[in-house]
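Entry 14: structure prediction run for tRNA-specific adenosine deaminase. Input pasted below.
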Amino acid sequence: MLNDEKWMKQAIKQAKMAATKDEVPIGCVIVKDDKIIARAYNKREMNQQSIAHAEILAIQKACKKLKTWRLEGCTLYVTLEPCPMCAGAIIQSRIEHVVYGAYDPKGGCVGSCTNLFEAKGFNHYPSYTSGILEEECSSLLKEFFKQKRKKA
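Run finished. Output tokens:
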């Protein structure tokens, strides 16, 4: 649990960087052998790419660093429950474990709307831990959208 909080704080740092660039504050780090091998934050607005989610960008960086698409032995930390696209990418990349902070009742696919990690028929089933530093992760998102509504 303490290690999960340590690494989630690093994901939160990434989320805060996203917010400074007017991106939805979601951050991600991937850890292997007790070291961060990749870090990323949402860049959908910057890149004008619907797939530029923090998890996707971090997975791409981790694959490049390890020179393989199989991210076995890795743990992915993300501030918001993965969406269907990201949950699918996590399954496809063979990430061993996922830790997320805030739940996403409108799009989360690791327990909220559905759970792709438990859907029958896949050839890989990541384990996961939810709700780590949930309040801090959730408040980043709530504050971001509150400010957005004020500006609108």
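Notes: Helices lie at 2-20, 44-47, 54-66, 84-92, 134-151. Will compare against the previous run tomorrow.
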